[in-house]
Amino acid sequence: MNTLTIIDARITEEDGSFVVTPVWSGVDRPDSASWSTGKNRALAGRLAQAMKAGVVFENPSIMTDVNGKTFVSALSLVRGRALNADLRRLGF
Q1: How far apart are the C-alpha atoms of 72 and 90, rounded to whole Å?
Q2: Cys bridge to 57: 15, 22, 51, 74, which one at CB 3.0-4.6 A?
Q3: Residue range 49-81, pLDDT digits in tens
Q4: Dihedral-angle region of residue 49 (phi above 0 means left; psi in -120 to 50 means alpha; beta otherwise)
Q5: Which residues have a Cβ under 8 Å from the Cβ of 82 and sit 6 or more positions away?
Q6: CA 79: distance to chain centroid?
């Protein structure tokens, strides 16, 4: 059985905003979702730490797209609009 873990949380800068993308192991499409933190680099760093600690997602599972490629489907415990509050609630 494949164990789903986040092996990295990439922070990139796109059009003046910081974007955080989790990178999952064990799937064909390891980076299928991302969050923008606007110009707040510190918030992006906190989100990346929380992702690496394994507290941002619940019930991750492997799904297969129409082309036979696997990806992760999981419930996110953080929302973009309430990201700061959600991260504080999770201890970050």
Answers
A1: 21
A2: 74
A3: 999 999 999 999 999 999 999 999 999 999 988
A4: alpha
A5: none
A6: 11
pLDDT per position as a tens digit, 79-91: 988 999 999 999 9
Q: What is the DSSP letter of 88?
A: H
Read off the pTM: 0.91
Rounded-to-10 torsion of CA 51, 57, 61, 63: -80
Q: ∠70-54-59 over CA atoms, to 5°?
A: 50
Q: What angle do CA 53, 54, 59 make, to 5 degrees?
A: 175
Q: What is the pLDDT of residue 32?
A: 79
CA angle 29, 21, 43 (to 5 degrees): 170
Split at pLDDT 50, 70, 90, the class of 1 is very low
